[in-house]
Write a structure and sequence with these properties.
This protein has 5 helices and 5 strands, in the order H-E-E-H-E-H-E-H-E-H. The chain is α/β, with parallel strands linked by helices.
């Protein structure tokens, strides 16, 4: 006997499959964040296009700088790059294009990173925790970019 799938069921299956994929990429971004030397906050980012990771980044100092993100007062140094900025500049230096890609970030982007996301053509932003301000998220939505918050610390039942 054949199983009959309704349009509603097929859509639900597709949504559940995408959610599972999103959670996996966010978990990978969280692991990637462990590469950061920053003590106050470690953030990771992955840029994915056509189901392939085309770039990655974590927050830290620019190339050639000492890997110390905070000053003696535990304040983040002004030249520390955010994970999104690192991933975007890395893909810009490659032969890949971020146009129509998705970026997975462990924390929501600040307004400066949101501007970079808009300019490089990323069409979707998925993050797992909220940054201290929502300016970046509001700007992304204003630009028509799809934005999704998925708390990867919650169980599947808690997410529903």
């Amino acid at each position: 006997m054949c199983k009959v799938l309704t349009t509603e069921k097929m859509t639900e299956d597709k949504v559940n499959k995408q959610l599972a994929i999103d959670i996996r990429y966010l978990r990978m971004a969280r692991i990637w964040a462990e590469n950061s030397y920053c003590k106050r906050r470690q953030v990771g980012a992955l840029i994915v296009k056509n189901q392939m990771i085309i770039s990655d980044g974590y927050n830290g100092t620019p190339s050639g700088f000492e890997n110390v993100c905070e000053d003696e007062n535990n304040v983040t140094k002004p030249y520390v790059l955010h994970a999104e900025a690192n991933a975007i500049t890395k893909v810009a230096a490659s032969s890949n294009s971020s146009r129509d890609a998705t970026i997975y970030i462990t924390a929501s982007p600040c307004i400066e990173c949101a501007k970079l996301i808009i300019q490089c053509g990323i069409r979707r932003v998925v993050f797992s925790e909220t940054y201290h301000t929502d300016d970046g998220i509001r700007l992304l939505k204003q630009a028509g970019i799809e934005v999704d918050l998925i708390d990867i610390n919650k169980t599947d039942d808690e997410r529903k």
